[in-house]
# Entry
Amino acid sequence: MWYKILHAWYLMIPVILGGCAHMVIVKYHRFSALNIPLAPSCFGANKTWRGLLLVPLLTALFSLLWIPIAQLHSQQILPVLIEECLLAGMFAGLGYILLELPNSWMKRRLGIPPGTLPTRNRAFFIFSDQVDSAIGVTLAYTLYFELPAVSAMLVLIFSC
# Structure
């Protein structure tokens, strides 16, 4: 069980670092040419091409950290080939971004402005803002790595 927990934590490294790097890029207005909303009427102004393109790319690049981490373990719990790492990281980043879109769409339909939380049902929206991308990452890793149910559940929990 220890390896399943460790594996789930390791899988989160590129997702966390990719998301943090994206927030730094947003904060400092880098790649502003890509700061074009995907579909403002559907998702609001905060879901942009920059995020859709950069989050999977950044997550893929940070997945290369699995290679030296994998060398620390006798049991193979992470990919060790560069292309496997990059592909898994890209899928996780895509899962993260794409599963945020239905939540944004629903909030726009309810009249909730982008980047805000309503006072009514606030806890539900806080939860949905966390769980949407967590489900996307979990689906991506589960499909790519064919994770068993326990490992997928751990990834989901750690993603939230």
